[in-house]
Automatic annotation (TrEMBL):
One of its GO terms (cellular component) is mitochondrion. This is Pentatricopeptide repeat-containing protein. PROSITE patterns: PPR (PS51375). Keywords: Repeat.
């Protein structure tokens, strides 16, 4: 009888073991959503596209646990995703992981890091990133300085913004529409708000009409385009969330007007908005959907 009981127990244990093994295999299959570097890179791209930036670090940890070695392209994808999600600590984590593996960040990654600092309104850290970049022997490009300008502008720091402008002009680099956008944002974000802020912004819009095109030198990097990172996102413009919408929603030649209308909407200055409308009319330009949205925001 005892033997029969023991046999039954062994049968039960064997059955339980088979069921447990099957369950474990199923759970592993569900968790193991990627098996190699290519599949993990696809996962990172998908998470960013779905705006689930908060899962990038978890997915990266899974990749490391699976013994998959990340590449430079992997870190580009991860840091671009954290930039879009304004996740500064995750961005620094991936930078440190990259260095640990002997991969030095290039100018594109440093630009993403500076941009992420701007999204987090951490201009001091953005300046430190530029210093780190120079100490590492990575030469800043035009996008680097515009990222830094807009990072300082997000914090309302006028002095560093104008210092960057002076450095650019002394180096023979003309100001483009994104520089003027940063100058406008800096005046809007400065605290306390200056009494003549509306006048300053309108003057900048007027000055921007004569900007010398430097798009060839500071235009969209080919890698940024491949990673679906627009200049509006890179420089933290208020149009960043609208740039990928259908054609006609956003007219890029009105970038400076976009930032100015957004500023006056935030400042609740209807008189200044009316001046901008008249300036558009004088140039025989119609407002796009984004500008109309800013006007409607104020009215509502």
């Amino acid at each position: 009888m005892k033997f029969l009981l023991q046999g039954a127990q062994r049968s039960l244990l064997r059955g339980f073991g088979r069921r447990y093994l099957a369950t474990s295999t199923e759970q592993y299959a569900k968790r193991n959503y990627a098996n190699n570097l290519s599949e993990y890179n696809t996962v990172f791209t998908s998470l960013t596209a779905k705006r689930r930036h908060y899962l990038l670090r978890d997915a990266y940890d899974d990749m490391v646990l699976d013994g998959v070695q990340p590449s430079r392209d992997t870190f580009h994808s991860l840091i671009a995703g954290t930039m879009k999600g304004s996740r500064l600590q995750d961005a620094f984590y991936f930078r440190d992981e990259m260095k640990t593996m002997g991969l030095l960040p290039d100018v594109v990654l440093y630009n993403f890091l500076i941009s992420t600092c701007g999204k987090s309104k951490n201009s001091d850290q953005a300046i430190k990133i530029l210093d780190e970049m120079k100490n590492s022997g990575v030469k800043p490009n035009g996008q680097t300085y515009i990222c830094l300008l807009n990072a300082c502008a997000a914090a309302g720091r006028l002095d560093p913004v104008y210092a960057i402008v002076r450095d650019m002009t002394s180096a023979g680099v003309g100001l483009n529409k994104f520089c003027y956008a940063g100058l406008i944002a800096a005046h809007k974000n400065k605290t306390p708000i200056a009494e003549d802020v509306a006048t300053k912004i309108i003057e900048l819009v007027e000055q921007s009409k004569g900007w010398s095109s430097v798009e060839a030198s500071t235009g969209e990097n080919a890698e940024n385009v491949m990673m679906n990172v627009s200049e509006e996102e890179l420089y933290n413009l208020p149009t960043a969330d609208y740039v990928h919408k259908r054609r006609g929603f956003l007219r890029k030649e009105l970038t400076v007007y976009h930032v100015a209308f957004h500023a006056f909407t935030e400042l609740k200055n209807v008189q200044a908005m009316e001046v901008l409308v008249e300036m558009l009319k004088s140039e025989k330009k119609d407002p796009d959907v984004f500008i109309l949205l800013q006007i409607m925001r104020y009215i509502s």
